[in-house]
Every structure is written in C-alpha cells, then in structure tokens.
Amino acid sequence: MDTKDDMATTSLPHQLKIAARSRIAPFIAMDVLARANAHAQAGRDVVHLEVGEPGGGAPAPVLEAARRALEGGAIGYTEALGRPALRAAIAAHYRQSYDLAVDPGQVVVTVGASGAFVLSFLAAFDPGDRVVVPEPAFPAYKNILRALGIEVVRLGLGPASDFKPTAAMLEALAPPLHGLILASPGNPTGTMLARSELAALAAFCRARGIRLVADEIYHGITYEQPASTILELDRDAIVINGFSKYFCMTGWRLGWLVAPADLVRPIELLAQNLFISPPALAQEAALAAFACRAELDLRVETYRRSRAALLDCLPKGGLDRFAPVDGAFYLYADVGHLSADSHDLCAQVLEHTGVALTPGTDFDGEGGHRYLRLAFAGAPDRVITGAGRVVDWLRSRR
Ligand SMILES: Cc1ncc(COP(=O)(O)O)c(C=O)c1O
Predict the structure, then answer these.
(1) Is the pLDDT reported for residue 30 higher than 50?
(2) pTM over 0.90, yes/no
(3) Cα separation of 305 and 216, whole Å?
(4) Is 255 in the pocket of ligand 1 (CB under 6 A)?
(5) Can you tell me which atom of ligand 1 is nearest the CA of 137?
(6) How many whole angstroms separate alpha carbon 188 and alpha carbon 137?
(7) Best residue among 244, 275, 363 to mutate for probing ligand 1, ranked by most atoms within 8 Å of CB
(8) Contacts for 18 with CB less than 8 Å, ≥ 6 apart
(9) pLDDT tens column, 256-302
C-alpha cells in the first residue's frame, strides 16, 4: 500500500530535470536586502540604501481610489490589455508630459514594468536573436532575455563615454543585432541620454532593422532637463514605463508599455495567456495617480536635496567619482581606488556601519566589481545618516 510516508521515503528513479533556462543570475540587491533585514532582526539599526524604492508610498488620492474600489464591489479580471479608462489616461499623460499624441489602443497595462519586459521581449524577439544590453544596467534585462533563450550582446560602458552608448559603439558589434535595450535615466547610473543622442541611436537602429526597447520608468525624476521619450523619435520602438518610481506605487505591481500598432495583438495574446489581466484594484487606484503630479513633483524635490547632500558628503570619505546623476535616485560610485572587489566592500560596510549598499556586479558582470550603487529614494534624514556612517568608516580605514 502506498502511504504518504512511503512515497516520501522512496527514492526517485531519476533525478528530475531543472530547466537550464532557469539558471540565471540572482538580483543581488534583493539578496543584500535579505541580509540587511537579518541584521535589523538581530537588533541593529540598518539604513537601507540598497533598493530603489520611493519612501513615501502612494499619494493619498490613490489610496482613496483603492478604498472606493474595494467598497464598490467585485475586484475581478479586467481586459488583458488593461482597463480602457486607464489606457486612455496613460495616453493623455503623453499629451500632457511630452505634447505627444499616443493612441490609447497602443497602450498596454502590465504587471509592473517587469511584466512589460516579459511581454515585449516575447513579442519582439525569437530564441537565438541577439539583443544588445548596454551595461551597467538593470539586471532583469539580461536575466529575462537569457531565460527566454535570447542571446545577450553586452556593450560595456564606462566614464569614457559618460556611461552612454553611442551609434559608433553599436557599429563595432558583430552583426546580426535584433534589438537594443535603452534606459534613460538609467539604473544604476541615473545617467540620461539627450534627445540628440537618442535620435542618433534610433536612426542607427532604424537603418538596420533593430528593435529598440526603451525603459522610461525613471521619467519624471530628473534634475537638470526633462527626459525625452523615444516615441518622439521612433514609432517602431517599444516604450516601457510604470507606476513604481515617479508615482511611488511599487507594491501595486502596475506598469505599461506603448507598442507599435502591429505588435499590440501579439502582445494581447501573450498577456491573456501569461497574466489574464493586470491587477484590477491597482488599475482603479492608478486612475487617480495622474492628478497627483504636484505632490509627486515635491517628492522629486526631496530626492534632489538628498542628491545634493550626498554629492557634498561622500567625497569626504573618498567617494568622488560618479556616473552623471541626471535623474533617477541612484549614485553609481567608482570604488576601484578603495577596494578591488565592491562585493566585499559592501559586505564590510554593512557589517561595520549597518548601511546596505549594492555592489556594481549586480549591474555589470564584467566591470561592476569596481563600482557600488547607493539608492537615495528613502527618507532624506536616513539617507544622510547612512552616508555619514559610510564616510566615517571609510575615513577610519585610511
Ligand atoms: C530600470 C528599471 N526598470 C524597471 C524596474 C522594475 O519596475 P516595476 O516595479 O514596475 O516592475 C526597475 C526597478 O527597480 C528599474 O530600476
């Protein structure tokens, strides 16, 4: 007789397979977060400068809209492409922010920007296609592409080009190239591409039939110039954005993409089958987000103040070489003169100061060991406390 216990103790005739495609790199910032939380649970005062999460939570009108939706009844499935009212509101956002007409029919609401990556990579690329990822970059680009069997063509960036890719760099890569992932402002650098620089990359891609995928999730969080959307320059590009960063709605898991008309139906079929629909409650709440821009812009001003305080304080500890921090809420610091291995340096900083930082290896497998990322999206007093502790510790090592 086969009891439950018998089945548990019977050894399997074969070791069951784990798919090779699942063997991707970890998201190191999340591993650091787990370690930092373990320190906090042990009673230490931990300052979280490792994850890019706005401190304040969603604006009050967004919470109120969610409450109304909950009281109003069923939270059910929605259209796979998202609620028409939200798609229209997102299209109107392009008119308001960029003076650009976007057809709501080309807007797709997704499960975070992360869900938009999966949908757009599946819709635009086949296994074996070669997609350029300029690094340092948000690690999910290459990890998702690899999990989907798409070849990642690394383009290493550094201070010589101000961490910006150029058409000449792309020209030097071996063909064929099927896609290019761009992020402006980028994570981990915060560096932005000017409109003319985006235009040159778009022209290169158009001439060679390379699909551009532009991650614009940090639009709205800029310190010098407003960001240009690639939609002004290349109507064949896929634009990805979402509610996690400027709109401060990380946990609501809502993003969007704008796709060329001929990609919308393929994306809809994928969305129906992969996700059924984006979360209904978050969609109702997000409808209220576009009216909160005055409040959200004030939050950007707090990031601006933290950025200024950090740029003033960190050099006192020898951290004085950063990628251009035009937007987002990160400083990508060169620590090559302080340590041969930023992973080890971040571990020591956490151990000695209780400040969690992310090693650059998360964002750049080849050059990242000489960089670390410091995220300043949290409460300014905590950011400044954390930076002060790091500076004091670095000075004590000299
Ligand atoms: C560049 C970039 N894109 C996308 C995301 C993920 O966005 P979402 O929370 O909407 O999935 C992040 C999160 O840190 C990011 O830095």
Answers:
(1) yes
(2) yes
(3) 22
(4) yes
(5) 1
(6) 6
(7) 244
(8) none
(9) 999 999 999 999 999 999 999 999 999 999 999 999 999 999 999 99
